[in-house]
From TrEMBL:
Source species, domain of life: Eukaryota
InterPro entries listed in its UniProt record: FAD-dep_OxRdtase, FAD/NAD-bd_sf, MTOX
Cofactor dependence: FAD
Family designation: Belongs to the MSOX/MTOX family.
Record flagged with keyword Metal-binding: no
Protein name per Swiss-Prot or TrEMBL: Sarcosine oxidase
Gene3D superfamilies: D-Amino Acid Oxidase, subunit A, domain 2 (3.30.9.10), FAD/NAD(P)-binding domain (3.50.50.60)
Annotated keywords: FAD, Flavoprotein, Oxidoreductase
GO molecular-function terms, A-Z: flavin adenine dinucleotide binding; sarcosine oxidase activity
Amino acid sequence: MGSCAAYAASSRGARALLLEQFDLLHHRGSSHGESRTIRATYPQAHYPPMVRLSRRLWEEAQADAGYRVLTPTPHLDLGPRDDPEFRAAIGNGGAAVVAGGGAEPSSWPWAGVFRVPEGWAAASSELGGVMKATKAVAMFQALAVKKGAVVRDRMEVIDIARRGEGSILVRTASGEEFHGAKCIVTVGAWTSKLVKSVVGMDLPVQPVHTLICHWKVKPGHKGELTTEAGFPTFASYGDPYIYSTPSMEFPGLIKIAKHGGPPCDPDSRDWSTGAADLAEPVARWIDTVMPGHVDTAGGPVIRQSCMYSMTPDEDYVVDFLGGEFGKDVIVGAGFSGHGFKNGPAVGRILAEMAMDGESRSAVEAGVDLEPLRIDRFVDNPKGNLKNPGDQGRQ
Ligand SMILES: Cc1cc2nc3c(=O)[nH]c(=O)nc-3n(C[C@H](O)[C@H](O)[C@H](O)COP(=O)(O)OP(=O)(O)OC[C@H]3O[C@@H](n4cnc5c(N)ncnc54)[C@H](O)[C@@H]3O)c2cc1C
């Protein structure tokens, strides 16, 4: 998000400085790895307009860079027909039911791959795709530099303070100090720690350990599950919530993983946790829904640890920090395992909030920022969740 914001701000002529605590493109946060998915099917109606804005901005950034990081694919959602989140997601995303809904065509492209469980449906939508994650972050950093931004890594920010009207001071662990008119804070899983130490506020952003799993495609089916064959990104509602990208980065393997994981401390992680809780439910799901095509014997062939930064309602935080900082410090955080696709839109919105005090792009694209405000937690610790039993969902 920080790299996207730096690109957006420097594209508008701002003198932007991007500070990163570790090495650039490190593996200790949330944005590394081979792939992320984009889709417009969301249970919450406020995300599809943001996804459509982002989709356009992905194209613009790629045109600016001269290479591609996003491979478009169709997107498929599967889920219990009576699951309200599944129904809302396909409704909000304009997906067409292709199996299990009663009115579907007699055959659909992936009928031979998915065994849709009794009582479930599958719905297809056009806006899907795979972003090359690390390559995309590198692209936004390179574009930001091209537009005049300065990027410094191994710079841990330890304090943000006001120094008079219109001046924000940022101090790093190495003792350097930087002054600017505005400061955008996009520190992922470190958000609650930094915000607490700067303003004493408890922002409910919980770091979570999660696992990316790649599974072996069964012999004879390697070509079928690829982006070249038009295979979709997909999500499966219910418990567990499963997501997948087509076979692409590792030929012969397909990424299928479970959303979520156990809470963790980003500064003392146990990289090995979760094999049982995070891989076994996926294996059981594969054996039920894709038994003919994906091999679960022996578990996933490749695993990679990653972190989510979860809010209680799984909605992002995109807001001014307020208090003594007023509109001069802006926070983009709590992307809850579904932020990558919206990086370009969030970066643009954060930059406009910093430079103009409001986001014109959000207004023009019909993106409602109200559900992403910090004050939603003031009267309700669960934010946008109305009922105690409600759960968020990516
Ligand atoms: C396994 C996995 C799969 C996912 N799949 C999808 C998907 O398919 N689609 C999708 O849209 N999203 C997906 N996501 C979510 C998405 O990747 C994240 O929402 C997004 O990358 C979050 O970006 P961020 O900038 O908030 O965090 P990060 O990328 O972690 O960036 C925060 C940066 O701030 C730095 N930092 C922290 N503290 C300081 C400090 N004090 N000083 C300086 N620097 C600091 C960190 O080192 C880090 O580099 C997935 C996430 C994971 C983990």
